[in-house]
Each structure stands twice: as structure tokens, then as C-alpha cells.
Amino acid sequence: MWVSMFRGDKALCLTLILLATLLSPILVPGTVVILIGAKVSMNTTSIAVSLILMVVVPTIIGVTLNEVSKSIIPAAVCPYLDPAAKICIVLVIAANTSPVASRIHFNDPKIWGLAALCIFLCAGGFLLSKLASTVVRCNHERSVTLLFSGGMRNISAITTIAVSFFPEAAALPALLGILFQQTISVFMGKLFANQKR
């Protein structure tokens, strides 16, 4: 959505999303081992198959329909399906975050510290992505795509993995990320991607 709004390279964005999705069953346990030093027993095959069925196959179908119809099908269907898709996203996030609701107490200073850390990490992801696109001298479209693809996280997938394989408190950063990610995306888009063409 953000890549489209700021006139980025949608094909590159889709490719990066698919690549990140396919690598997540390997990267998540590997990152936990590197950062925490603890091994997490996860059925990576099951997760990979689920991600392929939930993300990769629908994407391939959507891209195929778009290419075959020369964008006629998406133009005809999107006005009717966009509102339903947005409602479904809210329902998925609510379902994934409901197990953590009892653990959130806004009078706890740890929550505010965690919120500050989430803001810092989210903004840092955008800044590193912008730096990378500057270093490799990307054109405007690719720079926008790298900015948002590197800065944003698939919060719903992260929350699902956190709730499924970790204690409930592990989903708190993902839940707080939901609150801040879109707002930070607006600021970063206006700051780095809103160039006159």
C-alpha cells in the first residue's frame, strides 16, 4: 500500500515480501539463537507450508490474474473487496493479540520502555533501508520500495509466531509495533519518499 502511494516499484516490493515470507521459518529461529542463545523447537516445515499456502499461492494467483487480464480484473474487483480485506486484517490482528490483552498494564513502566524500544527499532529499520538504497544509488522507485520493504514488518505473522511458540509476553513487542508502525511509515514516507517528480 505504502509503495503504491509513494510511487515505488510494486513488483520489487512483492518479490521482497515473498522472499522474506519464505525465509522466515529459517530466520526466526536463527535470530532467536543469535540474540538470546536459546534454541526454539519449531516445526519449520509446517510453518513454511502454511506461509506458502497463505501468502505465496494467493500472490501467484493474484499476479497471474492481473497479468492475464491486463489489470482489468483488479480494477473491477478491488472497489468491492478492499473494504472486506481491511476488516479481515483488523480481525486477524485482534485474534492474534487477544491472548496478550491480560498482560498489558499501561501503568507498568516496562510497557512504556518497550514502546520506546519498538519506536526506535521501527524508525531504525526505515533509516537503515534508506541508507542502503542511498549507498547502492537506487532510482526513486526502488528507493521507495526498499524504504518501506525494509522498514515495515509483517506484524500479523510475527504475532502469530510469538503467541504459538513463545510465552505470551513475547507478543507484546509485536502488539506495540502494530500501534506505531503505520504512523512511523507516514512520517518516513513524507521525509524520504515524497519527492517531486
Bin the strand percentage. under 5%
Topology-level CATH name: Na+/H+ antiporter like fold
Q: Helix tally?
A: 8
DSSP strand tally:
0
Sheet with most strands: none
- Compressed to H and E, one letter per element, the order equals HHHHHHHH
Distance between the termini: 19 Å
Average pLDDT figure:
77
Shape: globular
As a whole number of angstroms, the C-alpha radius of gyration is 18 Å
Question: Any key phrases for this structure?
Answer:
single chain; about 0% strand; mainly alpha
Describe what this molecule looks like in 3D.
The chain is mainly alpha-helical and 197 residues long. The chain has a single domain, classed as Na+/H+ antiporter like fold. Helices cover 79% and strands 0% of the residues. The protein contains eight helices and no strands. The protein has helices at 2-5, 10-36, 44-69, 72-97, 109-135, 140-151, 155-165, 172-193. It starts with a helix and ends with a helix.
